[in-house]
Amino acid sequence: MSENKKVLFIDVDGTLVDYENNLPESAVTAIRKARENGHRVYISTGRSKAEVYQDIWDIGLDGMIGGNGNYVEDRGQVIFHQLITAEECRDIVDWLHGRGLEFYLESNNGLFASENFETMGEPVIQEYSKRKGKDDACRLTVRQAFPDMIFGGELYREDLNKVSFILSSYQDFLGAREAFPNLQSGTWGGAGETALFGDLGVKDITKANAIAHLLNHLGASVEDTIAFGDARIDLSMFECCAVGVAMGNGGPEIKAAADFITNDVTEDGLYHAFEKLKLI
Predict the structure, then answer these.
(1) What pLDDT, on the 0 to 100 scale, is given for residue 1?
(2) Coiled coil located at which positions (predicted)?
């Protein structure tokens, strides 16, 4: 690619949209202008494709990295997709049921909630939103947080990207890590023992690994890459891309790793960053 044409990787939650799924019009304008100028724009997110709602696609994107790196799509073509096996899915679901933990399964075909996730998940989602500084967090419901979540669906699946489960304690994360050593185990919604959720996914899957697959497909150079993020999960993007931009609402680790820090997502952070980088 020309040295003037860049490949942009934009995290979604906390970067493209705020934690109530509000999409700033300035971000839409910035991305459309950048693409008009010949730059390629991809979202790079922990969400599975089923969670990328139409308002995001309507911006105009070249593709996406999903599941924190297990899925790569370029202009409608699937470049890479690594799934949890059907046997592993069954083992995970049985283990979570046996431990009495509520969860949801993330696939490109939808988010599938466990039997009591809607009720048990509500206070956890509210706490998560509260930690992100939302004033009306106490009124947030699971259906508002996950508008297309499927309740009562099949839980033994062959299309599983990853699974998130509510932690009753940090021991649940440690237990999952021990029970599934061949999968990648993690936590989110807080650091260490303050984490709200555990998750399980395909091992050695990262946003950086996905970016490498996509760049190889495009015939593009790392020198042409710019990453935008707000959280620890985005560190691998910053490590592999030429430029890393942290949102003003981001955490201390991502800010420390950034080449520069822009405004908050709700304060036209992406637009200002695109201007500074002369993308628009």
Answers:
(1) 47
(2) none
Which of residues 186, 202, 218 is at a domain's end?
Answer: 202
- The number of distinct structural domains making up the chain is 2
CATH number at residue 217: 3.40.50.1000
Torsion angle of the four alpha carbons 33, 37, 43, 49, in this order, in degrees rounded to the nearest 10: 90
State how far the Cα of 221 lies from the Cα of 271, in Å rounded to an integer.
Answer: 24
Same domain, 105 and 123: yes
DSSP 3-state of 19: coil
Type of residue numbered 231: A
Please give the Cα distance from 208 to 44 (Å, whole number).
10
Q: When comparing pLDDT for 73 and 205, which is higher?
A: 73
pTM: 0.86
Contact 41, 277 (CB under 8 A): no
Task: Note whether 180 and 101 are same-domain residues.
Answer: yes
